[in-house]
């Protein structure tokens, strides 16, 4: 079961350029389970798929600070917009 799940997770992440969080949400399991499956188990089950998943996750990690900055910008723009409505 764990082997099937880690391969399914690996394919999902590669095909959708998904993050660990997105994969966990899609499959209804915890982020730690996804991470364990794709880092430890998948390497033993399917090394090639593991390498592809690692590439996607490394790219996501490099882009993470950009996405975080965008979220912060949206948050403060919304706060500013609400303040303007109340004045």
Number of strands: 0
Radius of gyration from CA coordinates: 17 Å
> Which stretches are low in confidence, meaning pLDDT under 50 for 5 or more residues running?
none
* Shape verdict: elongated
Number of discrete helical segments: 4
Proportion in β-strands:
under 5%
How would you spell out the order of helices and strands?
HHHH
Share in helix: over 70%
The total number of structural domains is 1
SSE class: mainly alpha
For the biggest sheet, the summary is:
none
End-to-end gap: 58 Å
Mean pLDDT, nearest integer?
90
Written account of the structure:
The chain has 87 residues and is an all-alpha fold. It has one domain. It is built from four helices and no strands. It has helices at 2-16, 20-27, 31-45, 47-86. Helix 1 crosses helix 3 and helix 1 packs across helix 4. The mean pLDDT is 90.
Topology:
Elements: H1 2-16, H2 20-27, H3 31-45, H4 47-86
Helix pairs in contact: 1-3, 1-4, 2-3, 3-4
Short description:
The chain has 87 residues and is mainly alpha-helical. The chain has four helices and no strands. Helix content is 90%, strand content 0%.
Features of this protein?
single chain; 87 residues; mainly alpha
């Amino acid at each position: 079961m764990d082997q099937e799940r880690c391969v399914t997770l690996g394919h999902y992440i590669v095909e959708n350029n998904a993050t660990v969080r997105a994969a966990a949400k899609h499959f209804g399991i915890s982020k730690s389970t996804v991470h364990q499956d794709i880092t430890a188990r998948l390497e033993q089950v399917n090394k090639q798929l593991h390498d592809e998943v690692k590439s996607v996750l490394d790219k996501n990690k490099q882009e993470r600070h950009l996405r975080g900055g965008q979220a912060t910008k949206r948050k403060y723009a919304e706060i500013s917009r609400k303040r303007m409505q109340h004045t």
